[in-house]
């Protein structure tokens, strides 16, 4: 007979599953057994929990203790079940009353002396618990601000197991309530006013920000490719509340949140080194896959500097995520889905020797082709904007006219995004880059004279069918920036130019 039951939650990607933690005492030789597909970390919980209970001034039962985690066919992993296991045992042993824990979800790792330590994924776990009908949550105090992001749930924080025991036995102020968490801003972003010259690249960056398009910048070193990429997040509008919670949940699962300001309100910027593994980029791990850089860059920017130094298999692994906006990872414990709707920004030199002036290149044609071939055709076909950068001239540096600041360009970007969001509001898309090709042509097709240019390019084999869709999206973004009701042939010609093609002659 089950003598005690409390609630916790299990992670599955950025989603969760409610878990019932049941405890039964008696019926066999003294010992502690955990059932319900626990992993190694969870199996070790019996020793941690026993020591934490003893060091909190309570006696561990000297009978057989059976702990069950349901649903029994779901793999359970991690140390976040320590607190509910301890409470369930103390309830079953008659040391804690059951009513205070009705409708309460418990999360937290226990130290041997009874201290509570934070765990990953608190936000998605509590969202799951709220959907399952829980009305209260008890979490470690360091995770209190993250937990308070969940509306409709009373959140309490504990420093030690003894705090939870005191609260349950009649001391209401033994647990801590959360203070309002300040949003995480990360400081002011770098400003575009620092970038000298490069008008074409600046315009491409503005178009990328306005439409959510992917961007490739190529050119000699020192021309400002990295500077421009780092200024893209400053052009993007702040995340809406639902987007911020979505991004924060991913960062919580990855263990990348700040305790003082956990809510991510600005688009993230990730710049992995070219030695990063496939798992570091797309996600991976044993048992259940963890999110990689592309998911942590969700709703933000993934910047691959020196893109041609990345091994080809790393770049090819991004193809599905670039097209579908999510990544599916299959591991032993099942398939998890992580959102991955990011803006990809690639920066590369044009050859391995990379001289300041391209005329000084000493590479053979074969070496240049091998170097640039790491950016394969299928990858480049998914990049909407390509810009070639040149070394700044002395005249550009001598120009005393200050370049446009980030705030000025951001205003145009926000207005263009508002037009796109209004156009796609009935379908749930926020930017032109998110719109699937069939839906784009069905609901807002290009005017006939504008579409003729793309049809001609497709007929002559200059672009693929995917390229037609991507040019149409860029044309809509250019129209939004120009406040035009629909893309004109000039907008389509500019979109083709961004992909490295010129508008064909009739």
Automatic annotation (TrEMBL):
GO terms for molecular function: ATP binding. Gene3D superfamilies: 3.30.230.10, P-loop containing nucleotide triphosphate hydrolases. InterPro entries: AAA+_ATPase (IPR003593), CHLI-like (IPR045006), Mg_chelat-rel (IPR004482), Mg_chelat-rel_C (IPR025158), Mg_chelatse_chII-like_cat_dom (IPR000523), P-loop_NTPase (IPR027417), Ribosomal_Su5_D2-typ_SF (IPR020568), Ribsml_uS5_D2-typ_fold_subgr (IPR014721). Coiled coil: none annotated. Residues 211-393 form the AAA+ ATPase domain. Pfam families: ChlI (PF13541), Mg_chelatase (PF01078), Mg_chelatase_C (PF13335). Belongs to the Mg-chelatase subunits D/I family. ComM subfamily. This is AAA+ ATPase domain-containing protein. It comes from Actinokineospora bangkokensis.
């Amino acid at each position: 007979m089950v003598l005690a039951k409390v609630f916790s939650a299990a992670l599955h990607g950025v989603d969760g599953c409610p878990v019932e933690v049941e405890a039964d005492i008696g019926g066999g030789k003294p010992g502690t057994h955990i059932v319900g597909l626990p992993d190694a970390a969870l199996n070790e919980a019996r020793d941690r929990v026993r020591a934490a209970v003893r060091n909190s001034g309570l006696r561990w039962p000297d009978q057989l203790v059976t702990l069950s985690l349901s649903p029994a066919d779901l793999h359970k992993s991690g140390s976040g079940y320590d607190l509910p296991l301890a409470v369930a045992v103390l309830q079953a042993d008659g040391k804690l009353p059951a009513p205070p824990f009705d409708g309460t979800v418990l999360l937290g790792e226990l130290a041997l002396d009874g201290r509570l330590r934070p765990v990953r994924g608190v936000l998605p776990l509590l969202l799951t618990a709220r959907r399952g009908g829980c009305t209260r949550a008890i979490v470690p105090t360091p995770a209190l601000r993250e937990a308070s992001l969940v509306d409709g749930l009373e959140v309490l924080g504990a420093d030690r197991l003894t705090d939870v025991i005191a609260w349950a036995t009649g001391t209401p102020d033994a647990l801590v309530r959360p203070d309002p968490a300040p949003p995480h801003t990360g400081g002011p972003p770098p400003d575009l006013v620092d970038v000298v010259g490069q008008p074409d690249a600046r315009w491409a960056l503005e178009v990328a920000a306005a439409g959510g398009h992917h961007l490739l910048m190529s050119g000699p070193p020192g021309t400002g490719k990295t500077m421009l990429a780092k200024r893209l997040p400053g052009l993007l509008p702040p995340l809406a509340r639902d987007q911020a919670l979505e991004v924060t949940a991913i960062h919580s699962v990855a263990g990348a949140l700040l305790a003082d300001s956990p809510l991510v309100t600005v688009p993230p910027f990730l710049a992995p080194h070219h030695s990063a593994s496939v798992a570091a980029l797309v996600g991976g791990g044993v048992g259940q896959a963890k999110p990689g850089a592309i998911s942590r860059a969700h709703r933000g920017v993934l910047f691959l500097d020196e893109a041609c130094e990345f091994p080809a298999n790393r770049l090819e692994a991004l193809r599905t995520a670039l097209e579908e906006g999510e990544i599916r990872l299959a591991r032993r414990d099942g398939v998890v889905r992580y959102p991955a709707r990011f803006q990809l920004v690639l920066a590369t030199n044009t050859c391995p020797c990379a001289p300041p002036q391209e005329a000084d290149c000493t590479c053979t044609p074969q070496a240049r082709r091998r170097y640039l071939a790491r950016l394969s055709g299928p990858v480049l076909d998914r990049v909407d904007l390509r810009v070639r950068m040149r070394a700044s001239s002395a005249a550009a540096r001598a120009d005393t006219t200050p370049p446009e600041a980030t705030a000025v360009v951001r205003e145009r970007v926000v207005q263009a995004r508002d037009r796109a969001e209004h156009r796609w509001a009935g379908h749930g898309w926020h930017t032109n880059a998110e719109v699937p090709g069939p839906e784009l042509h069905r609901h807002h097709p290009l005017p006939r004279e504008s579409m003729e240019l793309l049809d001609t390019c497709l007929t002559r084999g200059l672009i693929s069918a995917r390229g037609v869709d991507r040019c149409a999206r860029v044309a809509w973004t250019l129209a939004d920036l120009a406040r035009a009701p629909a893309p004109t042939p000039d907008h389509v010609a500019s979109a083709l130019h961004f992909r490295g093609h010129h508008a064909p002659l009739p």
